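hey can u check if this looks right to u? its 422 residues, i copy pasted from the old doc so theres a chance i mangled smth
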Amino acid sequence: MRAESFTATLSQKSLQYFIDHAHPVTGLVRDKASNFGATPEELPYRVASSAATGFGLAAVAHAAHVGTLDKKTALDQVKRTLVFLENQAPHWNGWFYHFMDWQTGARAYQSEYSTIDSALLMMGALYAANVLQDASLLQIVDRLYERMDFEIMRNNDGAHPDKKTLSMGWIPETGFIPYEWEIYSEHLALYYLGLGHPTRPLRDSSWLAWQRVWKKDFQGRDFLGQGLPLFIHQYNFLFLDPASVPIGKGDWMDNSRLATGYDKDVAMAQTSRFRTFREGFWGLSASESQLGYRAFSTEFYDGTVCPGCVGASAPFVPEVMGELESWSKSPWAKQIWGKYGFVDAFNLDPEWFSRDVLGITVGALYLSLANADPKHPTLWSVFRDLPFVHRAAKVAHRMENQVGPRPTSSACLVHIGGLPHS
């Protein structure tokens, strides 16, 4: 199979997840599903993820845009989802639950109203409505965006009026989560949505409030976010063009490229300790594991790898697709390759193989492949033209230019989307 053909196959398999696991009435997308049959929890599995739903909206809309999915099918799925989100899904000041019952939208896993997961849902909705160019969808998505109250998440409902960063969320029983989006993480789209908000934008100073931590790799090359799970360097640029987001030094494409290379380098430096790495596999990111959902990184690993997470670096390192193709034909192909592509994760040392795929991993992979495709318009090209991106980028660039690079910090906080996957 040629690399181009393999990429098309992987993209189609990823898309199929969002066709099979979007609820026929609500449109909410299951958080996870089996890659081989039966499970999770031997079905029926009722938990949806707001972020996976956002990725699904973008995936089906993109597929219709490039001709790999019937446009009416995509329109129907996007419309029922957005109508449900506007009229029936629970929300708190415009913010949605991280996990919801896919049939009712009710809170699942006692999860929080999540800022990052709501932002990813909103980004998917904005892309879908704008690329499908349906008037009713554009009106709904504008209303959904306008009701998102960024100020309440910044000032903790007035309790901290001078705070500049956004809370990670709000829990009905206990209030605001005691963690902030205050260092480099997967939050750039969230802050762009806030800075570009049409009626109640975040303060300009919020852009400078999150810390930038630069570190050198084995070869002395500086990049931002060393030691973080691989997905963080990908999620920021599923929707936003890296060129539209300012960075203190270097550029975001190069930063994510270096982070991807470092992820592989660390794994390959540990081949004597871990069979998974010795066999040439890598991909240290948030994923399932033998011990549950974990945020693996270059500073925390046990031999578990997430192959789909490697594919999501395709816009920065196109060569990873050749590795993925070889992995799909490896001696472990029957355990790691199935209906929706690669399983979420595996670890050869204890001979553990997930049987599932996660909607957020499959979705990030599909959208990344779309952004790496030279033959069709990227998601980036659509977002470059949206008014909120223009407003946010103008603020971010102005603030960056005022102060230049900020001092670095050794602080490190990794967020993997609130409560863990079951």
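The chain has 17 helices and 17 strands.
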